[in-house]
């Protein structure tokens, strides 16, 4: 069965050349051409294309490829089409946007290797892979990536400071930092310690003691130079180590700034 393709492009010459190229192929069917990101969403719902060639700029059309990508997330699709972006823009921010939104492939028009034939062949290759039967939820997928990134950042900081995974207090410190970052700006009145007590079914004192011991261990095994570089908050001169609350909020703030 021929692959159904939607072309979203504002250059009339480009559209004509794609149309001519596709008409000579038995394995691709061009279902529609539009230079409007709004009209393109209607075509997606009506024609249910297997693949989309998306011009990112649409300077002579309506909206932009960015608008289309944002709007297609909101559609209730049983099957998500493969999307190949064509663009004249090369920048880290554009690449990160496309990567975050799970665009399947990017062609830069000003590169020597760019050709319409390559674009179509790439779509065919991508379409050959098995597709999931259920709708891909961009929002959930994006949220999962953010959770994974947050988890990696917390674990990295705890590793650097010397809070080893063998320490009982490590999981409490990790969850406390994660809880604060995830609930930033939330009106919930639950405190961190209440959250940990509820999750682990341990007493307040048991959890607090385990966290403090994990911090003490880190301060014993790490050099003064490393500690001074990694933990820049003020520490009580009488104890020489931060309290669990000080430690948790320091790293919550530090990690939030890097997100």
Radius of gyration: 26 Å
Helix content: 40-55%
The strands making up the biggest β-sheet line up spatially as 2-1-3-4-5
Using the 3D structure, state the CATH architecture of the largest domain: 3-Layer(aba) Sandwich
Shape: elongated
Q: What is the CATH class designation of the largest domain? A: Alpha Beta
CATH topology of the largest domain: Rossmann fold
Which structural class should the secondary elements be placed in? alpha/beta
Order of helices and strands: EHEHEHEHEHHHHHHH
- The CATH H-level homologous superfamily of the largest domain: Response regulator
Q: Unreliable segments (pLDDT under 50, ≥5 consecutive)?
A: 131-136
Query: What is the end-to-end distance?
Result: 45 Å
Strand content: 5-15%
Report the strand count: 5
Number of domains: 2
The residue-averaged pLDDT reads: 87
By DSSP (H or I, 4+ residues per run), the number of helices equals 11
Let me know the largest β-sheet.
5 strands, parallel
């Amino acid at each position: 069965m021929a692959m159904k393709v939607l072309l979203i492009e504002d250059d009339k010459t480009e559209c004509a050349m794609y149309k001519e190229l596709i008409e000579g192929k038995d394995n691709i069917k061009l279902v529609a051409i539009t230079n409007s990101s709004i009209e393109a969403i209607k075509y997606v719902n009506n024609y249910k294309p297997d693949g989309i060639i998306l011009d990112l700029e649409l300077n002579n059309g309506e909206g932009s490829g960015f608008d289309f990508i944002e709007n297609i997330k909101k559609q209730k699709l049983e099957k998500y089409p493969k999307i190949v972006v064509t663009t004249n823009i090369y920048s880290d921010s554009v690449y990160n946007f496309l990567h975050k939104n799970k665009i399947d492939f990017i062609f830069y028009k000003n590169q020597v290797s760019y050709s319409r034939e390559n674009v179509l062949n790439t779509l065919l290759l991508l379409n050959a892979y098995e597709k999931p039967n259920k709708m891909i939820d961009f929002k959930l997928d994006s949220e999962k990536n953010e959770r994974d990134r947050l988890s990696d950042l917390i674990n990295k900081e705890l590793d650097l400071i010397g809070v080893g995974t063998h320490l009982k207090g490590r999981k409490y410190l990790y969850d406390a930092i994660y809880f604060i970052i995830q609930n930033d700006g939330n009106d919930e009145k639950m405190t961190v310690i209440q959250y940990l007590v509820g999750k682990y079914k341990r007493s307040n004192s048991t959890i607090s003691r385990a966290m403090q011991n994990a911090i003490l261990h880190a301060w014993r095994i790490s050099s003064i130079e490393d500690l001074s570089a990694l933990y820049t908050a003020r520490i009580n001169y009488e104890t020489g180590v931060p309290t669990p609350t000080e430690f948790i909020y320091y790293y919550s703030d530090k990690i939030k700034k890097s997100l």
